[in-house]
């Protein structure tokens, strides 16, 4: 399963920090950003991705995050 999120993350350093935090919480997931996309895409791949937990963690880091349907 792959969940795709729209974010407002701009810089590679910011994305790396968020990926690190997400991997601490979800070590079994594959996580990456596509900052070249207009929606600054965050992809989280793995078995059963908890949309709410991912969003909450990104928002707690000070960024916008919503799932793209």
Radius of gyration: 11 Å
Largest sheet geometry: 4 strands, antiparallel
- Overall 3D form: globular
CATH topology: Alpha-Beta Plaits
The ordered string of helix (H) and strand (E) elements is: EHEEHE
Low-pLDDT ranges: none
Distance between the terminal alpha carbons, to the nearest Å? 13 Å
Question: Which strands sit side by side, in order, in the main sheet?
Answer: 2-3-1-4
Question: For the residues shown, what is the average pLDDT?
Answer: 97
Domains (count): 1
Number of helices: 2
| Total number of strands | 4
- Approximate helicity band: 25-40%
Report the portion of residues in β strands.
25-35%
CATH class: Alpha Beta
CATH architecture tag: 2-Layer Sandwich
Q: SS-based structural class?
A: alpha+beta
List the helices and strands and how they pair.
Layout: E1 2-7, H1 12-25, E2 30-34, E3 41-45, H2 51-60, E4 65-67
Antiparallel strand pairs: 1-3, 1-4, 2-3
